[in-house]
Here is the input.
Amino acid sequence: MESTLQVKKCLDCPRQCGGGFCGDNSQLRLAWAGLHFGEEPLLVKDSGSGTIFVSGCNLRCSFCQNFQISQQGLGRDVSQDEFVQICLGLQNLGAKNINIVTGSHVWRILNRFLADAKSRGLQIPVCWNSSAYETVEMVEALSENVSVFLPDLKTLNPLMSKELFQAENYPRFAKRAISAMVDASPLRVENGEILSGVIVRHLFLPGRFEDTRAVLEWFAQNLNGRALLSLMTQYTPVAEISAFQNRFVAEEEGEKLKNLLEELGIEDGFFQELNPDSEWLPDFTRKSPFANNLAKSLWHYSQ
Here is the structure.
């Protein structure tokens, strides 16, 4: 269903659209919250990441696997108290962290709500899971309540970013934002659990090897040893919105990626093995959007 909420004039993110592109920036709208076991091992450990999916997005990629909430407005508004109760509920379930997914367009609301949650007993780390289409000022403000940053560095090619998410300035802002995240949150891992720091995620897109090379070269030159890399190969064609490749990542592409990591000397982080299957894609219209082995639901917008 489409969002019908009124938006306030917003110039908070690099898009500078005045409000409306992201779906809504005046209220916090959520789709699902629960324990997620499909994240990087340092986030999940043995009891899962307390993941909260925010509706709307300031990037809206043409291949988004969460398009129901990022582009179709699925979800409902929540109050500050309800958000705090969700966070505390995840903590009580044993979540290793609170993992906020795609909250850039409502970062001011979330920053305020997270501060309240901490004042009311939230003790586990907060993770900011975003597209990195953010400003340095936003990162610095969030660092008061966020311990771990999970930016997705999608591309450093402005032509590609213009084509796939209508944001030619994405590379410039993403590099600045991720550098600010690394400065604000030094890497700290204890007993197989990340307590602070940055995990830079990059999704390899089929047929775009040179674009990925550019991203990994920048990481190797600027962040190697200061942040972790998570190289993902889970690209899955999404028939409803896809304006990109209608195929999975090929096996030979996966081998080339492994060789590239070795060539650039990137050793700290994660490499996602190929899984050419669409069965794992979430369906947020269900109270349990993910496969049973991937998540345990706590809250759903329909409740």
